[in-house]
Amino acid sequence: MACNHCAVAHPAGTSCPAEQVASPMANDVSLVGQRHGPLVFKRRLGAGALGSVYLAEHFPSAHRFAVKVLHPHLAARPAMRQRFYAEARALRELTHRHVARVLDARPGPLGLPCLLMEYANGEPFSRLPMPLAPVEAVELLVQALEGVEAAHARGLVHCDLSADNLVLTRDKRGERRVKVLDFGASAVLSASLSKEERACGMVVGSPAFIAPEQWSGEAVDGRADLYALGVVGYLLVTGRLPFGFGRVGELAPPQPHALNPSVPPALSEVLLRALAQCPDDRFPDARSFREALASCLASLLLPPEPRSPFADDEALLPEIEVVVDELVDGASAPLVTGNGPFPDTGVPWDILPHPIPLTPDMAVPGSGSSISIFGQAVPADGATPLHLALREVARVATPMLEVSAPCEPAPAGLRIRVGLGEAASLVSVDAGDVTSDGFFAAWQGALPPLAARVPAELTFAGRTVWCVCDVVRHVTQDEARIWNVAAGIFVQYAEPGEPLLQLLAQVLASTRKPPRPDVELARLLSRAAAVAKDPYTLLGAPRHADFEEVRRRASAALRRLDGFRQRVLPEPQRRALESLRKRVEAARRTLGEPLNRAGFDALRNNLAGLARCVEAGLTDEALEPMRRAYLAARPDAEARARSLFTQGHALEVQRALRGALSRYAEALALDPLNVSWLRHYQELRHRTRAAAGGTSSLSSGAPA
């Protein structure tokens, strides 16, 4: 019987290495609170077959790192320790913006080998809200391929790529950046397998992403990584795995565009080629795969309006976008409160252009409902992994060490000396990237070890302050050549006192510039006039969307906007962002509550939306006050509607169902809040479609 952890049948009496660490406490004690040089292990991030990963913090600077600790039962084997350090040395040479950087490897707590890595704070691909839009999926896949291409150029093959070790993060400008994790882990773990385990078919990797040649024990190369990325791409655009979990079969998977009509056939062909059973039939290298995706991107940038997965005849509407100038120049829409049409809902008047005059005593008691994030399964916090893609980046995060080249020269007039000479004597250095936390010091000599403490002296405007710094990162000679910068070290102030903080404030104030407009937010704020006044279009929801979908879309939109609130933005962009957020809140209240939505849909003659309100439990009694107010503002509408409905009934008796439906629709256009008519019209439409071979109801199709 196949193992539940790796989908491979093991010999009787043997256990799976992955199973040994299924429980965080199965093999090793927790290292939370232990020190690793100047770092303190704060919490365990996860555990795998190779080791446990901890979040480590450097308290003076609040910088965070990830530290992988080799499991004790593996560390007890000298060959494993040697392989662990050998892989670490190779990985230190791999420097790329889309690969989580390996910074150092040395013994840590309890003498266990530890790998110090860049902390990729974000969401793994496996928890993104799939299926993604094809453009977005291609963008993420191309970034991952760039990182894999850089690794392959150094002879490093991952062999265990999956949707769990591809992480979507944000760089310091707020741009989305993919990080590839765990290079080298598969090679170390494979070295731990015995000949007997290999002979019985045991392999290392995530079963759903392993290439066929890995399953059969053949020699693998970089094309195995391309196969895994093909599985990832298929998952992103369809929301499902091409072969399910476990070993692949001989049958070809369904074409992605057959599962998701918004996927262009050209993209389907590219993904299916990456999934070819024979390595020779796949792309020869990562660059070819990436270029093939890029060729699809031109057609994806201006796609035909995609069809909704929720209906046959309703197109998906664009995401939230707004023009900065129009929102900034225009006055904010007043909120309706108290004696307005819908008490205490905060719905802008321009979203309800012709409000129905209701008084507070017409409100239905207990009609409010709690608004939460909706999904396929609801855990304790009310949200599902598929709908938490941007939650972490929307929160205020502690500063993170960005592994990149030094790029900003020191402010004019600042002179820095660091203890890097003989006997740690102070020598003048060319500094850069000066912040309130630390700076970069260029140095051509031997670099002090990570976590070492060095003295420093800062002089500015005739004032000198002495301090102690921790070495937190190296820029090696190899990196310097790649980046075309000087080699050196990044340091953080160990215990900055008040004199140092005052000097740094003076230095930074001399160079402070107004923030530049956020590029990603500017793209988001591009079409206000087209979408901001219509709550359906604002949320990208079809007119027949049910309440769960409306609330889910609104919650996802607010999380996305909250992510921008944490960034440094120009004041016009910040005002535009807050204005847009108010509109999204208003759209959620308008469409997320049955009574509010009924009033809005009645004004727009959206019978599909009204049917959703009735399905949600809105009764004749609850709607009658609103209906009376609606008809009072439209003299003779009720009499004309009744005449049309009578004509429709006569046609229905004569079995002229198309004519009957037409008359009923005309009647409802005049009296849309007549619940009994709406139910009759919906039932007849359902029967008519069923007789013609269709099955959709009014609420699942386009309004008549």
TrEMBL record:
One of its GO terms (molecular function) is protein serine/threonine kinase activity. Gene3D superfamilies: Phosphorylase Kinase, domain 1, Transferase(Phosphotransferase) domain 1. SUPFAM superfamilies: Protein kinase-like (PK-like). Keywords: ATP-binding, Kinase, Nucleotide-binding, Serine/threonine-protein kinase, Transferase. Residues 39-294 form the Protein kinase domain. It holds the Pfam family Pkinase. This is Serine/threonine protein kinase.
